[in-house]
Specification:
RibuloseP-bd_barrel, Aldolase_TIM, EC 5.3.1.24, single chain, phosphoribosylanthranilate isomerase activity, 6 helices, eight-stranded parallel barrel, alpha/beta, binds the ligand O=C(O)c1ccccc1N[C@@H]1O[C@H](COP(=O)(O)O)[C@@H](O)[C@H]1O
Length: 202
């Protein structure tokens, strides 16, 4: 199971996520209590070992800004929230980065990874980064095809159940590993990874 820990803003957070075994680490470069500048993201990216995917998260920014900020941050992937047509993913392809399409699970019936030319699909709650969960079992009958991540209100206490119900390729968490909005907890990050790994063995 692929695990992304999102919304990190300090080197200590990054070290905690790497130590716990995260596969990907996300930096929010859009309006959010977790926002970091591209320059801050670059410094955090430098603390991430090779083999761990670094992801810049955007919502509704113009594509030329996405391009510029992703390059400045030096990330390996961009995650786009908002209404983006397939042409947006085609346009960003020459960046040479992994492209993640984030969409609300509420409107994702029948979705497959790659529908818009993306490399990874992320199904999130209607309000990304809010910690709100949604009915993961709704996907049980027809989960997306391909590489897709489940997000929205995940936490150490519920991730095993969510994985069992939705059977995703990966999971993504932000609020559920925080002690308060925007402040990550190394203990909760480690606990989240332990729960996911244990669920994968079950
Ligand atoms: O974290 C944010 O503030 C954020 C802002 C804008 C777009 C996406 C954002 N975060 C994404 O939300 C999910 C996780 O949310 P949750 O807090 O665990 O419910 C994840 O994909 C983040 O990348």
């Amino acid at each position: 199971m692929f695990v992304k820990i999102c919304g990190l803003s300090t080197t200590q957070d990054v070290e905690a996520a790497v130590r716990a075994g995260a596969d990907a680490i996300g930096f929010v470069l859009t309006a959010s209590p977790r926002r970091v500048s591209p320059e801050q993201a670059r410094r955090l990216v430098a603390a991430v070992p090779e083999g761990v995917l670094t992801v810049a998260v955007f919502r509704d920014e113009p594509l030329d800004q996405v391009r510029r900020d992703a390059r400045e941050a030096g990330v390996g992937a961009v995650q786009l929230h908002g209404e983006h047509p397939a042409s947006a993913f085609a346009e960003l392809r020459d960046l040479g980065l992994t492209l993640v399409r984030a969409t609300s699970a509420a409107s994702a019936a029948g979705a497959s990874c790659g529908d818009f030319g993306e490399d990874l699909l992320l199904l999130d709650s209607p309000v990304p980064g809010s910690g709100e969960s949604w009915d993961w079992s709704a996907l049980g009958e027809a989960p997306p095809a391909g590489r897709w991540m489940l997000a929205g209100g995940l936490a150490p206490a519920n991730v095993a159940e969510a994985v069992a119900l939705a059977r995703p390729w990966g999971v993504d968490v932000s609020s559920g590993v925080e002690v308060r909005r925007g402040v990550k907890s190394p203990e909760l990050i480690a606990e989240f990874l332990r729960e996911v790994r244990a669920a994968g063995r079950g």
